[in-house]
């Protein structure tokens, strides 16, 4: 029998090849699924390490060392305990020991940390011998220099002991203070400024272990920080790592404190992987279903070719099982062979897509799952073939000899249609109710299949309605085209399949386009510009000055400060062109925002010399009073504050002189404020007045502020923050009068009553989203521009749906004006936003101006991370499945046209002999297939569009349910291009089918 089956297959190779390819696709798709899932999960876990938030990337163990042994021994015992008790494969460990000390009465920390010099930029040399230390910039600013010998008193049993001599070999700064190497992020500054690891905080001095080893009875703390690496998450599941940490924490408590946020990271990765698993599984099931349907139709469509063999077997009295073996064997053999080939091809392609699996147990599990999935695909394919042949095997010889196809469907086909429609309605209801039932996942496919089945049933009836009147009216082209559509049962199930695959592909393309747009929007929104550098500078004013210096035209770079704690983003507004701007933010165009945030203002008063002279008249009511100074607060070009003190004031008019260190023609200083000030609790009486006549540089230098300008009241304003007192101010011909009012100075406080030049708008213009950042009252709104500043008055220039970087709640302000109105040097996360075409030399130029880069982020990096999330990974697989499904649908359509080409060619040839014009035959041939294909594509596209509209989209885009921006709609260009591409492919198949039919008509008419 096997030889007979092989001989039968050799007689019809095209049919066997078709079944072989369909089985290979089904088996290959299912074989690729497990490896794709596991490999993608592995890649997602690795990507989650880079995207992990601060403390989620490390595990920290800390212990107070006993003082009854020397510090070196205690530290060694602790490190050995941790290596034994807490094993985290792929987590490099960094051991650390530190003791408290004092230096000149100031608390410091003397610390040893493994390989610390590799993470530092050191001016001088790394300490290598006992008694050598490297100090930070804070200690260096107190006057300690490289080469100095300092004495630090180590705290022993809570009391500072005798000092030890330490030689300063270098001054360090961390390359990246927020790197996981420096331990958990400091809780007090991880929101409003650049996060800093706790092992770097405080006035720490790093020294070799030899310096600390011999110390006894000291207050010492040791820690081991385990740093997550990509290799760790590649070789070990996040959940297993989190479990290992939690078990160790229980074992080591209470003597050793083990802390981490690894569980949060592991759970987030796990949830992300679940989205991927479900999405890929649904797509694989969808592919499997399409392949089985295609196989069923392929076998059913080619069944007529096997009728002759079956008739002969039955007429010769062959046993029923022999007939079954012959007919089923012709389908089963190529299906099994295709399944074997698909098994290895699918596994190979999955390896190319996601890479090889690192863990041995995962490779074994994936291989077992691959074989099982491929076997399931082959088994289903064989069953589909049996079901397709079942009707032929059950028919009598008389029925099998008939050449007319059955028009009526059996009860099984009707029941199948009813079940599909019911399931589709159930799935649509679950989606509409936002339920989480199992039908929700496959509802789009069920609805598309139900629409296709219903349309396939209606198509012949509609065609019949069109055909009869057309034929009666003598319109042969339309009549015969409609009649062929009505009387060709071969094409009825093919119409349902074509509608299904087009709807699935188009729906997937819509989801893909929306997800791609949403990911791009999120990446740009959360980054702010094409490239964003997180930097360190002496202060925010220094950052602003440096960025303007390296990019004077404002084409490439913009300084920005994000104060997450208070929900404010401060930007150098005239340079907003370098930012990524989108109308979805609900903001006007960037140039309108820039104009509103940074309106024109009077020029600042600049000091261009290092010596100032103040002309002032001092009047004070009779009676004793504390000495009062006039303090001119200047701000240097690099943000350096310079306080110039004149006084104490003497009664009458006098000219006072004082140095203005660091101000000159090359680096002028801006007058920030002029204040009446005392250094101690004051009893300055009300009515005390200082009349400011003029401020100039040197005896003969140019006037910084002349008497007329002092007398112009519109150029001055009083302080409005709670940190200062409010004087009474008045302008006139003699200058600016600054008076101490009855309620200016509360009892027991020092006097600090400033006036400010009006070189910035006040109230400060802002754009706001939500109400988180706004304080004050509805009639007096205020914000805190920086986390350390006081509230300042604002005027709301406009509202937004969302503020870049901050989300649906926050405020956008101009950085320069915010600094002036808040009268601070500013704080927060300092950043430099760069345009896409910014030259690489800008980073080096920033370094030359004292701006150090600690992190480099870009929209492309954020986008790559988002595309590693589970929904995106699953969507890629789903898109591939949809494309394969379309190919299957077109292949089934082509096969159906080939099967009916002979009978239809003979029919048209007979009509031609009876006088039917060739033009009519051509119109019917091409028109029938083209109309059929166009209707299927149109119905599939309409089904996908209507389903998306009725379901509200329903596409899961982000694993973390991020909703900072509205979900975009699919682009009209994408919809149009996808429609044209699908239509062109299907119409090409229809045109080829029509051309083949015309060729068959020609051969039939010639008698061949």
From TrEMBL:
Residues 282-388 form the ABC3 transporter permease C-terminal domain. Its main location: membrane. The keyword Aminoacyl-tRNA synthetase does not apply. It is found in: Cell membrane. The keyword Amino-acid biosynthesis does not apply. It is a multi-pass membrane protein. The chain crosses the membrane at residues 275-302, 323-346, 366-388, 409-429, 441-459, 491-512, 877-899, 920-950, 970-998. Residues 1-31 form the signal peptide. InterPro entries: ABC3_permease_C. It holds the Pfam family FtsX. Keywords: Cell membrane, Membrane, Signal, Transmembrane, Transmembrane helix. This is ABC3 transporter permease C-terminal domain-containing protein. The lineage of its organism: Bacteria, Bacillati, Actinomycetota, Actinomycetes, Micromonosporales.
């Amino acid at each position: 029998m096997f030889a007979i089956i092989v001989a039968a297959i050799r007689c019809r190779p095209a049919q066997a090849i078709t079944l072989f390819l369909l089985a290979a696709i089904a088996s290959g798709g299912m074989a690729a699924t497990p490896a794709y899932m596991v490999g993608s999960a592995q890649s997602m876990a690795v990507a989650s390490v880079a995207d992990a938030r601060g403390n989620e990337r490390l595990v920290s163990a800390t212990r107070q060392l006993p003082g009854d042994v020397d510090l070196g021994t205690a530290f060694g015992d602790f490190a050995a305990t941790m290596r034994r008790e807490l094993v985290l494969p792929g987590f490099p460990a960094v051991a650390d020991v530190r003791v408290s000390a004092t230096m000149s009465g100031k608390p410091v920390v003397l610390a040893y940390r493994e390989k610390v010099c590799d993470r530092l930029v050191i001016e001088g040399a790394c300490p290598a011998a006992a008694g050598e230390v490297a100090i930070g910039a804070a200690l260096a600013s107190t006057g300690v220099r490289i080469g100095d010998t300092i004495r630090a008193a180590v705290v022993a049993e809570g009391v500072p002991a005798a000092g030890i001599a330490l030689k300063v070999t270098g001054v360090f700064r961390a390359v990246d203070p927020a790197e996981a190497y420096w331990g958990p992020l400091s809780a007090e500054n991880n929101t409003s400024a650049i996060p800093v690891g706790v092992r770097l905080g405080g006035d720490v001095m790093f020294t070799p272990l030899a310096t600390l080893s011999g110390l006894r009875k000291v207050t010492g703390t040791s820690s081991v920080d385990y740093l997550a690496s990509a290799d760790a998450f590649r070789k070990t599941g996040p959940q297993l790592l989190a479990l290992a940490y939690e078990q160790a924490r229980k074992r080591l408590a209470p003597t050793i404190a083990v802390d981490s946020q690894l569980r949060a990271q592991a759970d987030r990765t796990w949830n992300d992987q679940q989205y991927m698993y479900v999405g890929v599984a649904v797509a694989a099931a969808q592919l499997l279903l399409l392949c089985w349907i295609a196989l069923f139709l392929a076998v059913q469509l080619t069944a007529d070719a096997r009728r002759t063999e079956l008739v002969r077997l039955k007429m010769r009295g062959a046993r029923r099982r022999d007939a079954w073996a012959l007919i089923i064997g012709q389908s089963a053999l190529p299906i099994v062979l295709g399944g074997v080939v698909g098994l290895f091809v699918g596994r190979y392609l999955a390896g190319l897509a996601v890479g090889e699996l690192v863990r041995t147990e995962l490779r074994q599990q994936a291989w077992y799952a691959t074989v099982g999935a491929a076997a399931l695909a082959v088994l289903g394919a064989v069953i589909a073939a049996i079901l397709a042949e079942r009707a032929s095997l059950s028919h009598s010889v008389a029925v099998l000899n008939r050449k007319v196809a059955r028009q009526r469907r059996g009860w099984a086909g009707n029941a199948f249609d009813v079940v599909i429609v019911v399931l589709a309605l159930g799935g649509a209801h679950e989606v509409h109710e936002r339920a989480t039932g199992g039908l929700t996942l496959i509802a789009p496919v069920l609805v598309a299949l139900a629409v296709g089945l219903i349309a396939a049933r209606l198509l012949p009836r509609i065609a019949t309605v069109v055909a009869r009147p057309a034929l009666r009216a003598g319109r042969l082209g339309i009549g015969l085209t409609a009649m062929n559509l009505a009387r060709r049962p071969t094409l009825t199930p093919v119409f349902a399949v074509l509608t299904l695959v087009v709807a699935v592909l188009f729906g997937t393309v819509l989801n893909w386009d929306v997800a791609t747009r949403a990911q791009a929007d999120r990446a740009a929104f959360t980054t702010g510009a094409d490239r964003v550098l997180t930097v360190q500078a002496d202060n925010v004013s220094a950052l602003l000055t440096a960025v303007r210096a390296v990019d004077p035209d404002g084409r490439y770079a913009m300084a920005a400060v994000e104060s997450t704690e208070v929900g404010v983003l401060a930007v150098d507004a005239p340079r907003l062109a370098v930012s990524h701007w989108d109308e979805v933010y609900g903001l006007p165009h960037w140039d309108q925002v820039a104009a509103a945030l940074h309106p024109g203002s009077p020029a600042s008063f600049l000091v261009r010399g290092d010596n100032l002279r103040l002309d002032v008249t001092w009047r004070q009511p009779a009676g004793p009073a504390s000495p009062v100074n006039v303090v001119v607060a200047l701000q240097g070009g690099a943000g350096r504050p310079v306080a110039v003190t004149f006084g104490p004031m003497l009664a009458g008019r006098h000219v006072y002189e004082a140095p203005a260190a660091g101000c000159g023609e090359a680096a002028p200083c801006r007058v920030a404020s002029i204040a009446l000030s005392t250094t101690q609790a004051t009893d300055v009486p009300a009515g005390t007045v200082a009349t400011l006549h003029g401020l100039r540089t040197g005896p003969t230098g140019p006037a910084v502020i002349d008497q007329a300008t002092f007398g112009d009241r519109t150029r001055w304003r009083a302080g409005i923050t709670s940190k200062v007192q409010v004087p009474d101010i008045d302008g006139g011909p003699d200058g600016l009068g600054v008076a101490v009012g009855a309620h200016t100075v509360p009892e027991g406080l020092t006097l600090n009553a400033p006036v400010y030049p009006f070189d910035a708008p006040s109230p400060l213009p802002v754009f706001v989203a939500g109400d988180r950042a706004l304080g004050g009252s509805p009639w007096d709104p205020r914000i805190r521009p920086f986390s350390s500043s006081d509230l300042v008055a604002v005027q709301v220039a406009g509202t937004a749906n969302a503020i870049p970087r901050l989300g649906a709640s926050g405020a956008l302000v101009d950085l320069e004006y915010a600094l002036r109105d808040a009268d601070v040097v500013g704080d927060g996360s300092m950043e430099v936003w760069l345009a896409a075409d910014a030259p690489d030399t800008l980073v080096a130029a920033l370094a030359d101006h004292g701006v150090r880069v600690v992190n480099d982020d870009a929209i492309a990096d954020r986008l790559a991370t988002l595309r590693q999330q589970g929904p995106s990974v699953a969507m890629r697989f789903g898109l591939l499945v949809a494309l394969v499904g379309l190919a299957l649908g077109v292949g089934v359509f082509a096969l159906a046209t080939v099967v009916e080409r002979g009978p239809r060619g003979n029919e048209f040839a007979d009509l031609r002999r009876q006088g039917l014009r060739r033009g009519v035959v051509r119109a019917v041939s091409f028109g029938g297939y083209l109309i059929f294909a166009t209707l299927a594509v149109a119905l599939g596209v309409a089904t996908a569009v209507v389903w998306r509209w009725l379901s509200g989209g329903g596409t899961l885009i982000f694993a973390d349910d991020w909703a900072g921006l509205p979900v975009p709609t699919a682009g009209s260009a994408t919809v149009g291009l996808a429609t044209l591409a699908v239509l062109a492919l299907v119409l090409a198949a229809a045109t080829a089918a029509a051309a083949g039919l015309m060729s068959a008509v020609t051969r039939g008419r010639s008698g061949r």
